[in-house]
Amino acid sequence: MQRPVKGKTPRRQAQKKTSNTQKDPVGVYCRVRPLGAEDEECCIDIISSTTIQLHAPDGIKANRNGEYKETQYSFKKVFGIQTSQLELFEDVAKPLVDDLIHCKNGLLFTYGVTGSGKTFTMTGSPGEGGLLPRSLDMLFNSIGPLQAKRFVFRTDDKNGMEIQGQIDALLERQKRESNQQSTLPKTPSSRQKPDPEFADMISPEEACKCEGVDEDSCYSVFVSYIEIYNNYIYDLLEEVPCDPIRAKPPQSKILREDQNHNMYVAGCTEVEVKSTEEAFEVFWRGQKKRRIANTQLNRESSRSHSVFIVKLAQAPLDADGDHILQDKNQVTVSQLCLVDLAGSERTSRTKAEGSRLREAGNINQSLMTLRTCIEVLRENQMCGTNKMVPYRDSKVTHLFKNYFDGEGKVRMVVCVNPKADDYEETMLVMRFAELTQEVEVARPVDRPICGLAAGRRHRNQAFQDGQSQRQEERPGGGGYTEDGSLFNQLLESLPALPACELVDPMDEQSLPRLVEVLERRQRIRQMISEQCTITANTLKSMLQEVEGHVTAKENFLHEQRGKLGEKDRVIVNQRNEMERLEKKSKMLEYKIDILQKTTNIYEEDKRSLQQELESRDQKLQRELSERRRMEARMQGMVTDTKHKWEKECDRRVNAKELEMRNKLWVKDEKLKQLKAIVSEGNSSVTSEQRLAPPPDVPPRPCREKDQRGGPPQKRSASPSSMPGDVFKTRGGGQSVQFTDIETLRQECPTASSRKRRSSEGQHNGKRTDWNDRENRPPLASTSTVLGVQTGYPKRRK
């Protein structure tokens, strides 16, 4: 069977909101907490009521230019260490509570690094109540006598509000009271015994009240308390059944969107409170469940973002001013969110491990998402782009996206710790605050004015007071006597009855006369009644007309007051803008002066460097010209020296050549004498050999052909062919012993012809030991044996 195709859910058409072109920037305030110790180094200076200066402490690395840069940051207002909680509340949170009563939403959150005093600013301590308890106190002081009874307003599951009748509300009150008495019979009421943590937070002289509250409406306050832990939402007011054996972990909640496209936490507990003490008790009950841990930087560090939501429901009274108008469309719901953001921290400083490390990572990630959303909003507003703001990346931004889209005022208190150890984290916080101030949020639209006449509650109260007073003044029949006198006056105005006495029932004279008088009186009474009715109707129409005129005048006055207030706010905003622009102009002028001075210094340096460069160029040119002259002079000297030494070398070569020729001539003469001696010796030896020739010595081959340039003849390796005596060597080879004449023939071929003629047919008896042909000594060795240094043979001694 084929499964049917499931169609997509059609996209819900968004309701068109009333466009409001007027926008207000996000109000960013700065609060500086005191140092923990007097000897700690401070890195923040308060310049004025709106400006602080952040300077790098000792030991921090300089910037790229090698200078310690001091930066100034401007806020809507700066609160120093001497600022009280009351002063901070009057400037920051009091306008938001006023807007809450006048049906406008508000968002107030604290931002800063860990240990900067965010929780103290939001909650406070006994005797120094923070923004949250003071806001609740102001709210109940303003609407205390105007509150509706319990359960007249009832929340539904879709972020809406319903109205119940007096009977249904009474039944539900009785049901709740009975259930509470059965479950907790011994628990005292919070009104009877308030929690000591909040008993003395606000002194009576510091109590404040909102002016201009609509007294023709009934109010009811609902509070809820949630926390965002590891990007999950948990209800801190949810009653979890206690199981001593197996504890049940709390269940996370989800975010949903109502029919007006406002985000809310589905299934969140909303408690109706009627007094400041009761609201404190509910807050403290949720505060005990909030996740707090000890770190290296903060003994009680918040590990989650806490959100305390105050929701105010109000509805107008009916025309009689006695009961609430049973119309759901006339119910107006406004809310104020007080957010205590967890502080950003560096794990290298907190030494967080395990679950603390995971908590720190989720806290930093959610704060980074908030920064990203602010940056995208700023870019869309300043550059005219339409980039998607990543609200859904974090539960914090997703929950409050309606406020940034124009559903209420947004204010932020930047808490700063001035100690030098937090310098880098504080600088990042200042940059985020400076960026947030440039984001503008659309101004919320005023609610429509009810068409009923104003002063209904006062008239109804006056009527009830008059009735009760008359009832008190009526002793028995006092009221009846007064009414009787009025009746008698009315009877006296009628025609008098005739004086007659009836004796007989059949009297025909008295009865007709009496009937005629009574009929006349009846006609007069009817005429008086009709006239009274006409007069009453006329008076009623006149009263209605006057009431309409009064209502129109009141509406006109209210409208004019609204316009006047709008003009006043515009004037205040323009003044603030002018002050901001003046401060910015002064800052820019100061920067321009600094840049001008820097430019002048650079110009002077440039001119000095230019002059130095020109002087060095001139010096270089002089050195180059001097070098060229030196090179030309050295070239001439080298040429002259070269010619001089060439002439000197020629002279010395010629002298040496002449000297060598003389020596050669002397040696030739000596050689001739030596040859003559050798020729005489060879002739005597030849004669002896002829007489007794040795049988073993073979005849020496003639080398005349080799001397004359004939072809070389191959010698035999046999001993009989060697020109001398052959002996066996120790290594197994052979050696030949030549005669002196053979050696002279080989070493001096120029005299081979004379030697050949003088030694032909003779054998020299004197022998000299030589090595083999390959091991013959060079000419220098032979000359040494013969005693001649020039290589020629010398006579032996």
UniProtKB/TrEMBL annotation:
The keyword Coiled coil is annotated on this UniProt entry: yes
A single GO cellular-component term on record: kinesin complex
Domain Kinesin motor: 25-439
Keyword terms, alphabetized: ATP-binding, Coiled coil, Cytoplasm, Cytoskeleton, Microtubule, Motor protein, Nucleotide-binding
Residues holding ATP: 112-119
Tagged with keyword Nucleotide-binding: yes
InterPro entries linked: Kif23_Arf-bd (IPR032384), Kif23_Arf-bd_sf (IPR038105), Kinesin-like_fam (IPR027640), Kinesin_motor_CS (IPR019821), Kinesin_motor_dom (IPR001752), Kinesin_motor_dom_sf (IPR036961), P-loop_NTPase (IPR027417)
Gene3D superfamilies: Kinesin motor domain, Kinesin-like protein Kif23, Arf6-interacting domain
Composition bias, Basic residues: 1-15
BP term (GO), one: microtubule-based movement
Primary location: cytoplasm
Region named Disordered: 1-22, 176-198, 460-482, 680-797
Stretches with biased composition (Basic and acidic residues): 766-776
Biased composition (Polar residues): 179-191, 680-689
Molecular-function GO terms, alphabetical: ATP binding; ATP hydrolysis activity; microtubule binding; microtubule motor activity
Superkingdom in the source lineage: Eukaryota
Pfam families registered for this protein in UniProt: Kinesin (PF00225), MKLP1_Arf_bdg (PF16540)
SUPFAM superfamilies in the cross-refs: P-loop containing nucleoside triphosphate hydrolases
Cell location: Cytoplasm, Cytoskeleton
Coiled-coil portions: 564-626
Family that this chain belongs to: Belongs to the TRAFAC class myosin-kinesin ATPase superfamily. Kinesin family.
Protein name: Kinesin-like protein
